[in-house]
Amino acid sequence: MADITWLGHGSWSVRTSDGFNVIIDPFFDESPTAPVKSDELDADFILVSHGHADHISDAAAISHRTGATVVAIFEIANWLQSTKNVEQVIGMNIGGGVNLPFGRLMMTPALHSSQLPDGSYGGEPSGFLLMLPEGNIYFACDTGLFGDMQLIGRHGISLAILPIGDLFTMGPDEALEAVRLLKPQRVIPDHYSTWPPILQDPNAWAERVRTETDCQPTVLTPGESITLS
Ligand code: NI
Ligand code: MN
Questions:
Q1: Average pLDDT, stretch 45-59?
Q2: What pLDDT digit, counting tens, does each position of 172-195 carry?
Q3: What is the mean pLDDT of the chain?
Q4: Ligand 1 center from residue 55 Cα (angstroms)
Q5: How far is CA 227 from CA 15, 148, 210, 224, in A?
Q6: SS (H, E, C) 149-192
Q7: How far apart are CA 16 and CA 94, in angstroms?
Q8: Ligand nearest to the Cα of 190, by number
Q9: What is the mean pLDDT of residues 142-151?
């Protein structure tokens, strides 16, 4: 069993059956909606999808305190190591995969931008496909809709986490189209209602998923979990 917890905005925790805690896009101390602060979390791995502050801001602090390995695109992994003194990093790139103790991790494309907080080049933005014994979990992270989601879907996706906030990422209409391309068994929306410009009604979106696709939607509030078994 893997427990997947929404930690507000684009931040997630995946606790795997082997007891590893994988944090995705840590944004806690400055987040209006995070149910925890960065010093309350344990972590074994931290995945960072791109360089924007609302996805990377607490990565270094959590890694320093817990010793967690940060996995990110090569440029961000290097930046964390050289400017933030993060000791354990794995730099990878889009389309590549790496076998980690909890399962296989693939880095997927994302249509977005990725400047680091100090203005450094952050490489390309990414998403992640976590291949766990319980099933594959796709984190689209910050992205617009793209047709190659159909290829990602060919891996077979048990759970997709898709942004619906609009403005900076897919909005509800595009996220619904993403469900059609990815064909996941289940979907959870994120990256909405953190601030007024990305205010959305997740239940209205979930109702559309339920009536217009074969996918089962779940709406979480920050701090809530679902279990994949
Ligand atoms: Ni972003
Ligand atoms: Mn974002």
A1: 98
A2: 999 999 999 999 999 999 999 999
A3: 98
A4: 7
A5: 9, 27, 19, 10
A6: HHHHHCCCCCEEEEECCCCCCCCHHHHHHHHHHHCCCEEEEECC
A7: 24
A8: 2
A9: 98
> Closest-lying ligand to the alpha carbon of 50?
1
Cα gap 111→122, rounded to integer Å: 14
pTM of the model: 0.98
Query: How many Å lie between the centroid of ligand 1 and the Cα of residue 18?
Result: 31
> What does the pLDDT read at residue 113?
98
103-109 and 126-132: which strand pairing? antiparallel
Name residue 81's amino acid: Q
Neighbours of 34 (CB within 10 A): 23
The confidence band for 20, taking pLDDT boundaries of 50, 70 and 90, is: very high
Distance between Cα 184 and ligand 2 center (Å): 22
